[in-house]
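Check out a protein:
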Amino acid sequence: QAAFLPARARFLHLMGLLAGKWPHTLALQPGGTTKSIDAGEKVRLLSILHEFRSHLEGDLLGGPLEEIAALENAQALFALGERRPGADLSLFLTAARDLGLERAGRAHDRFMSAGAFGLFKDGLWDDGRPAPLDLGTITEDPAHAWLSGASAHPARGRTLPDALKPDAYTWCKAPRLSGRPVEVGALARQVIDGHPLLRDLVATNGGGVLARIAARMVETARLLPAMESWVRALAPREPYCLPCPPLETGAGLGLVEAARGTLGHWLTVADNRIANYQIVAPTTWNFSPRDAAGQPGPLETALIGLPASDDGRASAMVHHVVRSFDPCMACTVH
């Protein structure tokens, strides 16, 4: 942790160079960005990526990223951890085996991804096999949220607070795909993309704590080399923005894979004004409450049966499970 925080801070200088600010970018706009990258900035971007690779291959993973990305099954993962004593990966795998984290925190094993970066596929993983992603079947159910209204597709949904609503226990709606809860995040992306290690972990013990953390490590090992290639492909002084005409009336949606999973924005414009804007954030999917049919969301399902102390304090295992989803409740209720 002591080494990771300053390494992460230096890595985020990428956002300053490319977007002007983090987390709310200043340079990105419809059609592209507000400026191109010059040759000096390109060199600096590559330098930042090289420095972060050195940190990942040293303190965190203890070896080449490409070796992590090529892991094919759980046996290979644990064998790699034994060959890299002292690295955070090895320490985590030792703790995971001692605590049984491979079996803890399993939800529905139903995953969704909108696809990302031209690198990871979109789709649905259900009943142990891939399926196409039908965005028209997405709904948000406010039955147990402090929000009024009926279940609706986000394009037609509303966010209307009702703080005195009986039987409500959260500000989070219950997103559903074809009426069923789904999990999003790095594990979902890697399973849907067909990574052999993550599919093996899910097939063996389900998508629990170990699988979610392993998916983040694998995804990091796959993403950083891709980022290096993207930066090398940047051509200084080439066009960096395409004109985007104003929209007087219409509707649209944007889907992206954020770090925590699928993020969706649904926008309606009427007479040059935003008439409705609905967001379904990744943690909204994962921390979904029960819907009108009583179906719990992924986290609620993952917590069922875990021990709690007699005085009401959550057990350490509860913390492991909650944190394995990497929640952001601020984005969920904004």
